Amino acid sequence: MGTIDILMPYYGDVGLMQDAVRSVLAQDDPDWRLTVVDDGKAEGVPEWFAGLGDDRVRYFRNERNLGVTGNFNRCVELAEHDRMVLFGSDDLLLPNYVRTIRALEQRYPDAGMIQPGVEVIDGDGNPVRTLADETKRRLYAPKITGSRLMAGEELAVSLLRGNWLYFPSVAWKAKAVKEIGFRDDLSIIQDLALVLDLMERGESLVVDDTLSFRYRRHNASASGWTAIEGSRFVEARNFFVEAAERMERRGWPRAAKAARAHLSSRLHALTVLPAVLKQRNAAGVKTLVRHAFGPSRHIDT
């Protein structure tokens, strides 16, 4: 078991970022290294990091804004250990996170991805049950007690039906992610695209129910705003069309069927529709209705 590389692509709220960093410093297993890559220009942030006085913490500020995917890839480049986490700058680690990941890595050393137990919180840090998260838990996530290893078409079907992973909590095999990287043609669904690429390379996923991460759910995120205005669903539709073709070529017909149906993504569009109707956003309404009810085919952007 080695050091866990905790990589934080940061842009946004300074206070939430500082809380996230403090949650890393509070780990009960000290074998971690935190790297923060700042894609913004907020005042006082470099000085705050300089004052932490912990040589396990590295801070970089990009000379120019790289955007979400560019900053993800910059973080991946900076990983130096075998296991890495792309930690959200508004999320929180529970004190047992590093210990939990290292224990699972010892049991499943070849796993490409490790998904620990997650609690969802709102913008104020209070536990919350949202429709999206309850749907993930009840309909799409595997029912487990303890831990379970998943791979191949079984895993592809499960995630293409509904992506139940909490991306910022996943611990990745760094070498595999470095070889693939994040696609620069995707801005919202790049996490599922990476997982699909890893699955096709034969990587497996361990899912465990040990609660060790707090995921913040609020509409002030990139995915929240693009959901409201509809553009994320154009990207999603085109991704699932491509994924279905890839699964067919691989000889995974059940996974191809799940990609063509992309049921959870269609249901998500319906849950967003009332807010878009309230805004009287005609283009957004058209996009959402087409995504929810239309045939599975590529949409030009």
Automatic annotation (TrEMBL):
It comes from Kutzneria kofuensis. CDD domains: Glyco_tranf_GTA_type. Keywords: Transferase. GO terms for molecular function: transferase activity. Residues 6-129 form the Glycosyltransferase 2-like domain. This is Glycosyltransferase involved in cell wall biosynthesis.
